[in-house]
Amino acid sequence: GLPSAAHECTHAILRVLQSWFAEERLSDSLLVILTRGSVAVAGEDLFGGLSGTPVWGMARSAQAEYPGRLVLADIDGARASVDALAAALESGESQLAIRDGQLFLPRLARTAPEGPVASRAPSSGAISQNGGSPAGRDLPGEVLDGDRLALITGGTGGLGAIVARHLVAVHGARHLLLTSRRGRDAPGARELERELAGLGAHVRIEACDVSDYEQLRVLLDSIEDDHPLGAVVHVAGTGDNGLLEALTPESVSEVFAPKLDAAWHLHELTEHLDLQAFVLYSSIAGLFGGPGQGNYAAANAFLDGLAAFRRARGLNATSIVWGLWSEAGMGRGLSNVDVRRVLGSSSMRTIPTREGLELFDLALASGEGIVFPARLDGGALRAEARAGTLPGLLRGLVRVPARATTERPDGFKQRLSSVPEDERAGIVLELVRTEVASVLGHASPAAVEPAIAFRELGFDSLAAVELRNRLNDVCGLSLHATVVFDYPTAGELAGHLLELLTSGGLAGESGVDARIDELELMLSTVAGDGGERERLAARLRTCLSALYGDGGNEDIDIASDEELFELIDKGLGAR
After folding, report:
1. Helix, strand or coil for residue 219?
2. Are the CB atoms for 433 and 33 separated by under 8 Å?
């Protein structure tokens, strides 16, 4: 029943997310999704919250599509955790967990293999164009002994075939069971069978829908006692990308079936066995989220949760969170712009097949339940940290400088207010062209003609979301998801932005608003206590009472000094 519960829970949260983000009056409101025991902290059990783990994957993708509008929080059953929730939400973190009143944040940490590392030369002919580990390279010990069978779901597809070759050539596997929907009729299946047999392996390729519990049970029951099951590598999966607003319960369940449902069935049907390896091929989408990948991210987040769930019960499990392979899987044939958009950070690189296989070995040897094998560019990491754009998960890998207290999100609007009115249209148009060029990977905004439609420039829905988010960030706006299609050229979009930015009267910025800005900056330098704060607070109460009129405002009159300064920070400083 757990897969059904996971489907229903994710369908429900999809409806909430779609209705929330479709409501324009909520564009300045923060949505908090609260789960209980759906993420594991420090190797703990999931408290029965495993059906909620896909929610985290879907919500992470929603965060990528709608930055700053959604927070994910997970608590335990402690009263102290409930009491600590409000303060935790003020931390500015987009994802957090609270255990017994203590705040935990998700961060990646470097890891290294544990235990002895064996050197094993591959069998003759093992190194092919599809990759393999070079002779003499230090590798972890064998995943399984030669007499036990390895099951690979999705074993005839690109990544499944690669790992099958690797297990035979490097880890000494001699008995393989490969599954796919079409079995030996799948493209390349018979050729793969002959290749593996030539390396000395006994191979069965079977047609099996691993999302069907009964089909999978029959398949596992057919394994001979002479070569019992020793390892499971779950590679099977499918994608059906779409932005959050386009997802349906059907498109979610279609992606869940071969990933989530099959993984749970494999767990249930093998949990009584002493497996040497239970490997789940997860995705960076589940860990980081990604625009247009809500359903896929949700399914893969479940795999990570299942690994934690099994290990808390003393069972073997490793969820390998893969990024893009440059020569196989989703990464094959993608442009540099597409790769950056999928990976979500300019610091991440695609993984060549040979390096991916070495990382596979290191992941199994790490002793960790969830491993993210990645090629990271240290310079790009530091640049993102300085710019304040580094994903939260990566902040444990590089020192993140504190932002200047004077940094403001409405700097572009202030800049616009400082120039003559007849120059503003050109400045906004240049901004739009610059951001469009960045989204499309052009070296210069000169490549973006103001009158050419975005679709003709190469825009798709993911590019539209990225442009919308960039403009929101620069201008301090909350543009609708369809703004790029409502104003389909750079010129039209710039005109719309100019109207939004000036609708409140930018000239007024030089008056009261500008003086409030100056006041806000001065207040940030006031000492934390003492008579000076009390004196200033009294004067501010008088000013606010005059603003409200009619003898003042009762809430302001009874507010403490700390509450008043907090009101100023959140209210007068908001744009």
Report:
1. helix
2. no
Asked if 122 and 135 count as a contact pair (C-beta separation under 8 A), the reply is yes
Residue that is written with structure tokens 């957090």 in the block: 96
On whether the CB atoms of residues 525 and 406 are closer than 8 A, the answer is: no
Other CB atoms closer than 10 Å to residue 530's CB: what's the count?
9
Q: Which two tokens stand for residue 97?
A: 């967990």
Residues 297/353, Cβ–Cβ less than 8 Å: no
What is the 3-state secondary structure of 341-356? HHHCCCCEECECHHHH
Phi, psi dihedrals of residue 58, rounded to the nearest 5° = -65, -40
Confidence at 483, pLDDT banded by 50, 70, 90: confident
Q: Facing residues of 96 across strands? A: 73
The residue among 145, 235, 160, 234 whose CA lies nearest residue 196 is 160
Q: How far apart are the C-alpha atoms of 450 and 305, rounded to whole Å? A: 47
What six digits make up the tokens of 104? 């935990």
Counting other chains too, the contacts that 524-530 makes at CB distance below 8 Å and 24 or more residues apart are 524/405
The gap from C-alpha 378 to its chain's centroid, in whole angstroms, comes to: 20
What 454-459 contacts at long range (C-beta under 8 Å, 24+ apart), as own/partner pairs, is 454/484, 454/485, 454/488, 454/489, 454/490, 455/488, 459/484
Return the structure tokens found at 223. 């394994």
What whole-number distance in Å separates Cα of residue 283 and Cα of residue 297?
A: 7
Residue 270 vs residue 510, higher pLDDT: 270
For 519: left if phi > 0, alpha if psi spans -120 to 50, otherwise beta; the answer is alpha
Tell me, what DSSP letter sits at residue 453? B
User: Could you read off the pLDDT of 78-135 as tens digits, one per residue?
Assistant: 999 999 999 999 988 999 999 999 999 999 888 865 443 333 322 222 222 223 333 3
Q: What is the pLDDT of residue 123?
A: 27
- Condensed to tens digits (0 to 9), the pLDDT of residues 160-206 reads 999 999 999 999 899 999 999 999 999 999 999 999 999 999 999 99
**Residue 70's beta-bridge partner residues?**
31
Going by the DSSP 8-state scheme, the letter that residue 142 receives in this structure is P
| Residue count of the chain | 575
Predicted model pTM: 0.76
Pair 219, 194: CB distance under 8 Å: no
Encoded amino acid at 561, one letter: D
Report whether 231 contacts 279 (CB < 8 A).
yes
